[in-house]
Amino acid sequence: MPKQHTLFGRPIPRFTTRRLTLLLVCLSLLAISLITTLTSAVPSSPSLSAYDRKISIPRIGDSLSKSILNPFRQPSHQPPRQSNDEYAGSSWWADWKWLSVPFSSSVTLDKDRALLPPLKKRQPIYCYYDATAKKTRDEKDAESELLLTWRRAWWAQGFRPVILSAAEAMKNPTYDRLQRLTVDAGVKGDLMRWLAWGTMGGGVLAHYTLLPTVLEEDELLAYLRRGEYPHLTRWKNLGDALFIGPKDDISAAIREFTEPPKLKLIKIGMTGVPEGIFKIDDASTPLASYNPGVLEKKYAKVADSFKKGRVDGLRSLNRLINSHLHVAWQNRFPDGIEVLKPYPEHTTTMVSGALMLARELAFCPDSPMPATCPPNLPKCTPCVARSPMRVSTPARYHNSSRIFSIGTVPHPWTLAVVDNMRESLNVSWIRRESQRDPWLTTVTRDLLGTGVSGNRRIMSLKEAVAGEHAMAHSLWHIAEKEMPTDMSWYFGFAIPKQGLDDGKSESPVPADRLPKKNDKAPDRSDGPVASEEDVAKEPRLLELARDVVAQTKSTDETKLRASLEAWSMADTEAWKFVRAFQSRRAMERAEWEKDEAKYSSGSGTEKGRNAWNRWQDRKEDENP
């Protein structure tokens, strides 16, 4: 028999289902009437109503439509835009979190903006060039080409090369005093160089015959990049080719130089300077100095060319320096160059630009003395003394310091169209036949193995693209754009380019040593070889894919493209990251070139390259 409950000694009747339902209904009606009464009793605020008309207050209904994963979360504002965060159709957000989150949109809140590492500040390195001196046109053209080589080499090492002139020297407060002193012309030129450097506030001052021909990342270059120089310093084995120091020490040194008793002791090359002004570093440096003494001792043929004429000597020296920069780079990668080709059957056209660049990098550069090494690397292996640099097309990325890798990153739509030989895609194919993140999975398989998430793979690729030393060991670009034309600035030396029709080269490399145009033959040792029929179809498919990827208006194809991007999120993130990273690199150099063009007057700019080409054309006309 069930237990009988009591209250104050009286039995409590048991609740039946009907009585419980009636009680709940009554409580609900009471609550509704209470809420209605309280709401009608509070008068509406005029100020609140006016505010509500001006500014939209977020509602739960709005949030529900904005976020499917979390319907009760308010939509958040996008971060503010940074300066110079867009170029060539790409946009980005620079933040130290770039290696903390796999997908950029979780930080940028913008599906089109990539999360990049903060752009490193480039330390200026100064070089003085007196453009007012009386010289022939050919001599100025030859000097301009040599200055271009100097700027290109230091830019590739992470510096901001700046060419100073008499205009900067004239702004120095000591300039008027120097003009009143009786001093040798050569010493006066050296002092003008210092005045210009002092005007810029110190830093690094170098000759345009001092080049960073190094095999690997060096402690001195890292020190120079930091921009912190506590003392005015020169290096014993470099003479006056390199100085570093703060502005105050430079100003104090200039005042001592211009004192008449001490000025009489100074000779050309800043020799005879009293002790105590410079801190002299006895350590050997990884930099290559091509001063007259070095040329006479190690490169007699180039030194003899100066005896024939300064123009011939400068051009011979420029070819020697460029070849040494190229050879030093080749010595860094004894195992050769790898052009990534994860899907060899149908991506021959896609990687043809990268393969062409790799073969150009593997050539022996033209040189007046091809069997020589840079003066700071006497034990290097000249290109002519070894077998040709190996170029291969593996499917997977190998993270090795002995290999230089060139990666072509396709958009998921591009890879799907080209690899499957389809002119268009549909929802059924995407859902049933397409794989998730196929490109990234294949490329990183040797690095990470199988069974690894896309989040882990995308973080590894980002580090390979934009890590601390990544640019020294790899180059990445997207498949939808041609290989950039400024690769000489990326590597730091002139890369021979084949002409479009006549086979002429932009640099003085014999035509028979250049690769044949559109040479797309893959390395048979690295996987299947594409058939001629499939290769013939690839250009049209690649062009169709590029049009869809570049489309910004909403169409049926762009909706399908968005579906494929959502299916292969890691591949899409890799493509957007590489596109933004390369666009920012191009923007940085374009802005620097534009800024420096106001001061250089053609010295060391692309005008110098045009002068070099004019000289080459004259030589060909004279010697058909």
Query: Which blocks of ≥5 consecutive residues have pLDDT under 50?
Result: 45-69, 499-522, 611-624
Number of strands: 17
Residue share in β-strands: 5-15%
Radius of gyration: 34 Å
Query: Helix coverage percent of residues?
Result: 40-55%
Count every helix, treating DSSP H or I runs of 4 or more residues as helices.
25
User: How many discrete domains?
Assistant: 2
End-to-end separation in angstroms reads 123 Å
**Biggest pleated sheet:** 6 strands, mixed
Task: State the strand order across the main sheet.
Answer: 7-6-8-11-10-12
- The coarse silhouette is extended
> Helix/strand/pairing class, anyone?
alpha/beta
Chain-averaged pLDDT: 84
Biased composition (Basic and acidic residues): 513-526, 588-598, 615-624
Region (Disordered): 501-538, 588-624
Q: What is this structure's SSE topology?
A:
Blueprint: E1 6-7, E2 10-11, H1 17-41, H2 46-54, H3 60-66, E3 86-87, E4 90-94, H4 105-108, E5 113-116, E6 123-128, H5 137-156, E7 159-164, H6 166-170, H7 175-179, H8 185-199, E8 202-206, E9 210-211, H9 219-226, E10 233-235, E11 242-246, H10 247-257, H11 260-263, E12 279-281, E13 288-289, H12 292-298, H13 300-308, H14 310-331, E14 337-339, H15 352-362, E15 391-392, E16 404-409, H16 412-419, H17 427-432, H18 438-443, H19 445-448, H20 454-466, E17 474-478, H21 487-491, H22 532-550, H23 556-567, H24 569-600, H25 606-622
Parallel strand pairs: 4-5, 6-7, 6-8, 10-12, 14-15, 14-16, 16-17
Antiparallel strand pairs: 1-2, 3-4, 8-11, 9-13, 10-11
Helix pairs in contact: 5-14, 5-25, 8-10, 12-13, 13-14, 16-22, 20-24
